[in-house]
Amino acid sequence: MIDAHLHLWELHGGSALGAGAYAWLGPQHGGLFRSYGEAEARETLLAAGVGGAVLVQADDTTADTDAMLAAADRNHWILGVVGWIPLDKPAEAGEELERLVRNPKFRGVRHLVHDDPRDDFLELPEVRESLALLAAHGLAFDVPDAFPRHLGRTVQLARELPELTIVLDHLGKPPLAEAGSMAAWRRDFRALAVLPNTVAKLSGLHLPGVPYTAEALRPLWDEALDAFGPERLMIGGDWPVSTLGAPYGRTLEVLLELVGELDPAGRQAVLEGTAVRTYGLNYKAGHSRAH
Q1: 3-state secondary structure 245-277
Q2: Which of 50, 83, 116, 166 to pair with 145, CA 20 to 30 A apart?
Q3: How does pLDDT run across 37-52, given as a tens digit for each residue?
Q4: pTM: predicted TM-score of the whole model, two decimal places
């Protein structure tokens, strides 16, 4: 399989990854508050039988993007990078895109919308201008932790910019333990899935108040499968963030228990095909690049 959602960061010198501490990450995050580099990531993926991965930004900085691309240049198993550009500054965003697309592993952009104080970030004319540039380059746009502030706005974005491929990370962070909020998540999730330029990641599902088991996550899996179909779903381990909830192997084990119920074509789509198509990865199915 391809892990479509993996992070690397270096907090204390050495590698350029992260260029220092991330604003959101501190001692309160326990085991996350250390460096996670490419060698450890490779060993972790190999132990779980994962063939390759897509690196995803965890900091809204150029330094983070450049460090991920440098890691990708050093490692065949890193198939693609979802980085960051200043979307609210379209002139700068355009210049950055022209520079970054010279690296064939630069395959998408993400902005930490859940940490941005602007509720209307995705609606800003400047951001829309930059996202149109992204679409023109054939790059995907990842939206993290969209619910509750940004899931409805992501639907609006997908409708108004149909040429842009939008990736909903972590199924939009459904509030599974909050029965009163699930109806709103389901409404927007379904509205997004209707739009053909959208895909979703089965990732980041260590949810507050919810046991991390296939049985507990089944309502989300059934919803996602019915709404998107396997051809628009991809799997991601969200390492190392997910280690706060379970070891990497256990995180994948639960997801694979659900995906394993699909027919072979459906499994191939969720485990490899959707990621390859969405991000335009150079990857041959069944060939473990991590080796």
Answers
A1: CCCHHHHHHHHHHHHCCCCHHHHHHHHHHHHHH
A2: 50
A3: 999 999 999 999 999 9
A4: 0.94
